[in-house]
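Weekly modeling sync, notes
Attendees: S.R. (lead), two postdocs, one rotation student

Agenda item 3: backlog of single-chain predictions. S.R. asked that every request posted to the team notebook include the full sequence so nobody has to chase files. The rotation student volunteered to paste the first one in as an example of the format we agreed on. Action items at the bottom.

Example entry:
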Amino acid sequence: MEEKIKVQINNLAKIYPNGDGVKNVNLEIKEGEILTLLGPSGCGKTTILRALGGFLDVTEGSILINNEEVTHLPPEKRPTGMVFQSYNLWPHMTVEENLSFGMKLRKISKNEIKRDIEKMLAIMSMSGSEKKYPNQLSGGQQQRIAIARSLLLKPAVLLMDEPFSALDAKIRMQMREELKRIQAELNITVVFVTHDQEEAMSLSHRIVVMEKGLVAQVGTPTEIYDNPESKYVASFIGEMNFLELEGEQVAFRPEDVLICKQDEGEHIGVIQSVMLLGHYASITINTGKHLVKAFIPRNKTQNIQEKQTVSFTLNKSITYKKGA
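Predicted structure, as returned to the notebook:
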Protein backbone atom coordinates (compact mmCIF):
# COMPACT_ATOMS: atom_id res chain seq x y z
CA MET A 1 0.00 0.00 0.00
CA GLU A 2 1.37 3.38 -0.99
CA GLU A 3 2.14 5.71 1.91
CA LYS A 4 0.12 8.90 1.84
CA ILE A 5 2.00 12.18 2.21
CA LYS A 6 0.19 14.29 4.80
CA VAL A 7 2.46 17.36 4.86
CA GLN A 8 4.72 18.71 2.14
CA ILE A 9 7.23 21.44 3.00
CA ASN A 10 8.94 22.91 -0.08
CA ASN A 11 12.03 25.18 0.05
CA LEU A 12 10.88 26.69 3.31
CA ALA A 13 12.83 29.62 4.71
CA LYS A 14 12.14 31.84 7.69
CA ILE A 15 14.87 34.41 8.31
CA TYR A 16 14.65 36.67 11.38
CA PRO A 17 15.98 40.27 11.34
CA ASN A 18 19.19 39.13 13.12
CA GLY A 19 19.90 36.62 10.32
CA ASP A 20 18.94 33.51 12.32
CA GLY A 21 16.21 31.15 11.18
CA VAL A 22 15.87 28.21 8.78
CA LYS A 23 16.42 27.80 5.06
CA ASN A 24 16.19 25.16 2.31
CA VAL A 25 13.81 22.98 4.34
CA ASN A 26 12.24 20.26 2.21
CA LEU A 27 10.26 17.59 4.06
CA GLU A 28 7.54 15.09 3.32
CA ILE A 29 5.65 13.92 6.40
CA LYS A 30 3.74 10.67 5.99
CA GLU A 31 0.26 9.96 7.27
CA GLY A 32 0.28 8.16 10.62
CA GLU A 33 3.93 8.78 11.51
CA ILE A 34 5.65 10.53 14.40
CA LEU A 35 8.27 12.77 12.82
CA THR A 36 10.61 14.42 15.32
CA LEU A 37 12.57 17.63 14.77
CA LEU A 38 15.71 17.20 16.88
CA GLY A 39 18.56 19.56 17.63
CA PRO A 40 20.09 21.92 20.19
CA SER A 41 18.51 25.25 21.19
CA GLY A 42 18.45 27.77 18.37
CA CYS A 43 18.83 25.23 15.54
CA GLY A 44 15.45 26.07 13.97
CA LYS A 45 13.25 23.15 15.02
CA THR A 46 10.60 25.26 16.77
CA THR A 47 10.66 27.75 13.87
CA ILE A 48 9.61 24.95 11.48
CA LEU A 49 6.88 23.79 13.89
CA ARG A 50 5.49 27.30 14.37
CA ALA A 51 5.56 27.89 10.59
CA LEU A 52 3.58 24.64 10.16
CA GLY A 53 1.01 25.82 12.69
CA GLY A 54 0.65 29.27 11.13
CA PHE A 55 2.16 31.12 14.10
CA LEU A 56 4.98 32.52 11.94
CA ASP A 57 4.98 34.05 8.45
CA VAL A 58 7.50 32.35 6.22
CA THR A 59 10.13 34.25 4.21
CA GLU A 60 9.81 31.90 1.25
CA GLY A 61 8.61 28.42 0.30
CA SER A 62 5.30 26.63 0.69
CA ILE A 63 3.48 24.30 3.10
CA LEU A 64 0.82 21.86 1.91
CA ILE A 65 -1.37 19.77 4.23
CA ASN A 66 -3.54 17.10 2.57
CA ASN A 67 -2.40 18.55 -0.79
CA GLU A 68 -3.87 21.96 0.07
CA GLU A 69 -1.77 25.10 0.29
CA VAL A 70 -1.85 26.53 3.84
CA THR A 71 1.27 28.72 3.70
CA HIS A 72 -0.52 32.01 4.38
CA LEU A 73 -3.49 30.78 6.43
CA PRO A 74 -3.79 31.82 10.10
CA PRO A 75 -3.59 29.07 12.77
CA GLU A 76 -7.37 28.79 13.21
CA LYS A 77 -7.87 28.12 9.50
CA ARG A 78 -5.31 25.26 9.39
CA PRO A 79 -6.06 21.58 10.03
CA THR A 80 -3.41 21.50 12.79
CA GLY A 81 -3.51 21.21 16.58
CA MET A 82 -0.72 22.53 18.82
CA VAL A 83 0.40 21.16 22.19
CA PHE A 84 2.84 23.37 24.09
CA GLN A 85 5.36 22.71 26.86
CA SER A 86 3.13 24.64 29.29
CA TYR A 87 -0.24 22.95 29.28
CA ASN A 88 -2.20 26.17 28.58
CA LEU A 89 -5.32 24.85 30.35
CA TRP A 90 -7.73 27.44 31.72
CA PRO A 91 -7.43 27.13 35.54
CA HIS A 92 -10.99 28.38 36.23
CA MET A 93 -12.55 25.74 33.95
CA THR A 94 -13.13 22.05 34.67
CA VAL A 95 -11.54 19.38 32.46
CA GLU A 96 -14.85 19.02 30.61
CA GLU A 97 -15.12 22.80 30.05
CA ASN A 98 -11.51 22.96 28.83
CA LEU A 99 -12.13 20.11 26.40
CA SER A 100 -15.47 21.38 25.08
CA PHE A 101 -14.43 25.02 24.57
CA GLY A 102 -13.04 24.66 21.04
CA MET A 103 -15.79 22.24 20.02
CA LYS A 104 -18.50 24.72 21.06
CA LEU A 105 -16.82 27.40 18.92
CA ARG A 106 -17.20 25.00 16.00
CA LYS A 107 -20.95 24.69 16.73
CA ILE A 108 -20.73 20.95 17.42
CA SER A 109 -23.91 19.57 19.06
CA LYS A 110 -24.00 19.02 22.85
CA ASN A 111 -24.57 15.26 22.47
CA GLU A 112 -21.64 14.88 20.11
CA ILE A 113 -19.38 16.93 22.41
CA LYS A 114 -20.32 14.75 25.42
CA ARG A 115 -19.83 11.52 23.46
CA ASP A 116 -16.46 12.61 21.98
CA ILE A 117 -15.11 13.80 25.35
CA GLU A 118 -16.06 10.51 27.05
CA LYS A 119 -14.37 8.53 24.27
CA MET A 120 -11.23 10.71 24.32
CA LEU A 121 -10.87 10.56 28.11
CA ALA A 122 -11.09 6.76 27.92
CA ILE A 123 -8.29 6.73 25.30
CA MET A 124 -6.23 9.00 27.59
CA SER A 125 -6.88 6.76 30.63
CA MET A 126 -8.54 9.81 32.28
CA SER A 127 -12.20 8.66 32.49
CA GLY A 128 -14.06 10.22 35.42
CA SER A 129 -11.98 13.41 35.56
CA GLU A 130 -14.57 15.62 33.80
CA LYS A 131 -15.44 17.71 36.88
CA LYS A 132 -11.88 18.18 38.14
CA TYR A 133 -9.98 21.45 37.79
CA PRO A 134 -6.42 21.56 36.33
CA ASN A 135 -4.84 22.24 39.76
CA GLN A 136 -6.30 18.93 40.99
CA LEU A 137 -4.32 17.04 38.31
CA SER A 138 -0.64 16.06 38.15
CA GLY A 139 1.61 17.50 35.42
CA GLY A 140 1.32 14.34 33.33
CA GLN A 141 -2.48 14.35 33.64
CA GLN A 142 -2.66 18.02 32.65
CA GLN A 143 -0.56 17.33 29.57
CA ARG A 144 -2.87 14.43 28.64
CA ILE A 145 -5.84 16.80 28.83
CA ALA A 146 -3.96 19.35 26.67
CA ILE A 147 -3.33 16.60 24.08
CA ALA A 148 -6.98 15.47 24.30
CA ARG A 149 -8.17 19.06 23.73
CA SER A 150 -6.16 19.26 20.50
CA LEU A 151 -7.24 15.81 19.28
CA LEU A 152 -10.94 16.49 19.87
CA LEU A 153 -10.77 19.09 17.08
CA LYS A 154 -9.63 16.24 14.76
CA PRO A 155 -6.53 17.94 13.33
CA ALA A 156 -4.84 16.47 10.27
CA VAL A 157 -1.51 17.01 12.04
CA LEU A 158 -0.75 17.27 15.76
CA LEU A 159 2.15 19.64 16.48
CA MET A 160 3.98 19.14 19.79
CA ASP A 161 6.57 21.62 21.07
CA GLU A 162 8.73 19.92 23.75
CA PRO A 163 5.50 18.78 25.45
CA PHE A 164 7.10 16.58 28.12
CA SER A 165 10.14 18.65 29.08
CA ALA A 166 8.50 20.14 32.21
CA LEU A 167 7.77 16.65 33.59
CA ASP A 168 10.13 14.60 35.73
CA ALA A 169 12.08 11.74 34.13
CA LYS A 170 9.81 8.84 35.12
CA ILE A 171 6.58 10.58 34.08
CA ARG A 172 8.28 11.69 30.85
CA MET A 173 9.01 8.07 29.92
CA GLN A 174 5.41 7.07 30.70
CA MET A 175 4.09 9.94 28.56
CA ARG A 176 6.26 8.84 25.61
CA GLU A 177 4.78 5.36 25.84
CA GLU A 178 1.28 6.84 26.15
CA LEU A 179 1.81 9.06 23.10
CA LYS A 180 3.01 6.08 21.03
CA ARG A 181 -0.06 4.08 22.09
CA ILE A 182 -2.52 6.92 21.37
CA GLN A 183 -0.84 7.72 18.05
CA ALA A 184 -1.07 4.07 16.93
CA GLU A 185 -4.67 3.73 18.15
CA LEU A 186 -5.87 6.86 16.32
CA ASN A 187 -3.36 6.70 13.43
CA ILE A 188 -2.64 10.42 13.83
CA THR A 189 0.24 12.29 12.20
CA VAL A 190 2.49 13.93 14.78
CA VAL A 191 5.30 16.45 14.36
CA PHE A 192 7.26 16.50 17.62
CA VAL A 193 10.00 18.92 18.68
CA THR A 194 12.66 17.97 21.23
CA HIS A 195 16.32 18.57 22.08
CA ASP A 196 16.39 15.22 23.93
CA GLN A 197 17.97 12.56 21.69
CA GLU A 198 16.72 9.70 23.87
CA GLU A 199 13.15 11.00 23.51
CA ALA A 200 13.59 11.28 19.73
CA MET A 201 15.05 7.76 19.45
CA SER A 202 12.33 6.15 21.56
CA LEU A 203 9.32 7.95 20.04
CA SER A 204 9.90 8.56 16.37
CA HIS A 205 9.27 6.73 13.16
CA ARG A 206 11.68 9.23 11.56
CA ILE A 207 13.96 11.94 12.92
CA VAL A 208 15.00 15.23 11.31
CA VAL A 209 18.34 16.32 12.81
CA MET A 210 18.70 20.11 12.59
CA GLU A 211 21.98 22.03 12.52
CA LYS A 212 22.07 25.84 12.55
CA GLY A 213 18.87 26.31 10.56
CA LEU A 214 19.53 23.52 8.07
CA VAL A 215 18.37 19.91 7.85
CA ALA A 216 21.48 17.81 8.59
CA GLN A 217 19.90 14.37 8.10
CA VAL A 218 16.49 12.69 7.89
CA GLY A 219 16.07 9.00 8.69
CA THR A 220 14.70 6.34 11.00
CA PRO A 221 16.26 6.19 14.49
CA THR A 222 18.25 3.10 13.36
CA GLU A 223 19.55 4.82 10.20
CA ILE A 224 20.63 7.91 12.11
CA TYR A 225 22.26 5.91 14.91
CA ASP A 226 24.06 3.42 12.64
CA ASN A 227 24.87 5.65 9.65
CA PRO A 228 25.22 9.30 10.68
CA GLU A 229 26.02 11.28 7.53
CA SER A 230 28.25 13.86 9.23
CA LYS A 231 30.43 14.25 12.28
CA TYR A 232 27.81 16.64 13.68
CA VAL A 233 25.02 14.03 13.49
CA ALA A 234 27.38 11.36 14.83
CA SER A 235 28.22 13.46 17.87
CA PHE A 236 24.62 14.54 18.48
CA ILE A 237 22.90 11.13 18.51
CA GLY A 238 24.01 8.69 21.22
CA GLU A 239 27.53 8.44 22.62
CA MET A 240 30.32 8.55 20.03
CA ASN A 241 34.12 8.30 20.24
CA PHE A 242 36.41 10.09 17.78
CA LEU A 243 40.01 9.19 17.00
CA GLU A 244 42.21 11.15 14.61
CA LEU A 245 44.10 8.70 12.43
CA GLU A 246 46.19 9.74 9.42
CA GLY A 247 44.36 13.03 8.98
CA GLU A 248 40.89 11.45 9.15
CA GLN A 249 38.31 11.30 11.93
CA VAL A 250 37.31 7.76 12.87
CA ALA A 251 34.00 7.61 14.77
CA PHE A 252 32.77 4.58 16.73
CA ARG A 253 30.23 3.77 19.41
CA PRO A 254 31.34 2.69 22.91
CA GLU A 255 29.57 -0.66 22.40
CA ASP A 256 31.78 -1.30 19.33
CA VAL A 257 35.04 -1.17 21.36
CA LEU A 258 36.51 -4.61 22.09
CA ILE A 259 39.05 -4.56 24.95
CA CYS A 260 41.84 -7.16 24.51
CA LYS A 261 45.05 -8.19 26.19
CA GLN A 262 47.86 -5.66 25.91
CA ASP A 263 49.41 -7.00 22.69
CA GLU A 264 46.31 -8.26 20.84
CA GLY A 265 44.53 -5.07 19.75
CA GLU A 266 45.10 -2.35 17.15
CA HIS A 267 45.17 0.54 19.65
CA ILE A 268 46.75 0.84 23.08
CA GLY A 269 45.86 2.86 26.17
CA VAL A 270 45.57 2.99 29.94
CA ILE A 271 42.29 2.46 31.78
CA GLN A 272 41.41 5.72 33.47
CA SER A 273 38.07 4.78 35.07
CA VAL A 274 35.61 1.90 35.45
CA MET A 275 31.98 2.83 36.20
CA LEU A 276 29.33 0.19 36.82
CA LEU A 277 26.00 1.26 35.30
CA GLY A 278 23.63 -1.57 36.08
CA HIS A 279 24.03 -4.47 33.66
CA TYR A 280 27.02 -2.93 31.87
CA ALA A 281 30.16 -0.97 32.71
CA SER A 282 31.50 2.21 31.14
CA ILE A 283 35.28 2.07 30.77
CA THR A 284 37.36 5.16 29.91
CA ILE A 285 40.67 4.45 28.15
CA ASN A 286 43.35 7.14 27.76
CA THR A 287 45.34 6.62 24.55
CA GLY A 288 47.62 9.58 25.26
CA LYS A 289 45.91 11.72 22.61
CA HIS A 290 42.27 10.79 23.15
CA LEU A 291 39.88 9.51 25.79
CA VAL A 292 37.91 6.52 24.49
CA LYS A 293 34.74 5.27 26.14
CA ALA A 294 33.86 1.54 25.97
CA PHE A 295 30.66 -0.17 27.13
CA ILE A 296 31.14 -3.79 28.15
CA PRO A 297 28.86 -6.34 29.87
CA ARG A 298 29.24 -6.26 33.64
CA ASN A 299 30.30 -9.93 33.79
CA LYS A 300 33.38 -9.12 31.66
CA THR A 301 34.81 -6.56 34.09
CA GLN A 302 36.47 -8.95 36.59
CA ASN A 303 39.96 -8.58 35.10
CA ILE A 304 39.72 -4.87 34.31
CA GLN A 305 41.25 -2.36 36.71
CA GLU A 306 42.11 1.32 36.68
CA LYS A 307 45.70 2.22 35.59
CA GLN A 308 45.96 -1.08 33.69
CA THR A 309 47.45 -0.93 30.16
CA VAL A 310 45.17 -2.58 27.60
CA SER A 311 44.70 -2.68 23.87
CA PHE A 312 41.44 -2.48 21.94
CA THR A 313 40.01 -3.09 18.49
CA LEU A 314 36.92 -1.63 16.83
CA ASN A 315 34.11 -3.92 15.71
CA LYS A 316 32.63 -1.13 13.58
CA SER A 317 33.58 2.46 12.74
CA ILE A 318 32.79 5.30 10.34
CA THR A 319 35.45 7.53 8.78
CA TYR A 320 34.86 11.24 8.16
CA LYS A 321 37.18 13.51 6.26
CA LYS A 322 38.56 16.26 8.48
CA GLY A 323 36.13 19.15 8.65
CA ALA A 324 33.20 17.05 7.32
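Discussion: group reviewed the output briefly. The first strand starts at residue 5 and ends at 15.
Action items: rotation student to repeat for the remaining queue; S.R. to check formatting next week.
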